[in-house]
Amino acid sequence: MTSQSNSDDLSYGWEAIAQDFISSRSSIGLATIENWGKSLEPRQVLLDVGCGFGEPYTQYFIDRGVSVYGIDASKTLVQEYERRFPEAIAKYESAVTSLFFDKKFDAILSVGLIFLLPHSTQISVLRKMAISLQDGGNLLFSAPCQIVSWDDLLTGRKSMSLGREKYINILKEHSLSLVGEYTDEGNNHYYNFQKSIVPEVGH
């Protein structure tokens, strides 16, 4: 049986290292994500794109009464996610092809995913997130500020950041504005975008 080629692996190498990732995941970034999530109220709906196995922050949202949905392209990570968080709804599918449950979300979160994707794929996934976000909702994702590429330490795959200006311009096209930036204790950078509220047309 031949191994899956890089071009066919929509998990971008994460399925191959899933068990190692599960056993070594730290709490880095937890405080940053919790602080971002404080504005979410019970019964609001969150989508986690590239949810992995849900650590270290999924339980925080569940405890707040938030309805949590997640997708990930690693079957092993999704199975572990479902085992740990039966209250959440998870699907084994790629952000590239996912319909995002065909729903609109109050908030969308994507940690450690965007920079794994090729240039054009980053743009299409970010646009899809923007379209799937409710007016007034927030999108948080992680990527370096600068335009840079590197080899991922865990998967060995090429990663790239399109840079702060490019991300701002991509999302501006879909009425999202940058409202905050954070750097966690592991020097991971996060962008917080908010979708503008379209005023109701008078009767």
UniProtKB/TrEMBL annotation:
Q: Which organism is it from?
A: Marinomonas aquiplantarum
A single Gene Ontology molecular function, please? methyltransferase activity
Q: Which named protein is this?
A: Methyltransferase family protein
Q: Some GO term, biological process aspect, for this entry: which one?
A: methylation
Q: Which keywords belong to this entry? A: Methyltransferase, Transferase
Entry's SUPFAM superfamilies?
A: S-adenosyl-L-methionine-dependent methyltransferases (SSF53335)
Classify the source by domain of life: Bacteria
Q: Which Pfam families does UniProt cross-reference here?
A: Methyltransf_25
Q: Tell me the organism's taxonomic lineage.
A: Bacteria, Pseudomonadati, Pseudomonadota, Gammaproteobacteria, Oceanospirillales
**Which InterPro entries does the record match to this protein?**
Methyltransf_25, SAM-dependent_MTases_sf
- Domain Methyltransferase, by residue range, is 47-137
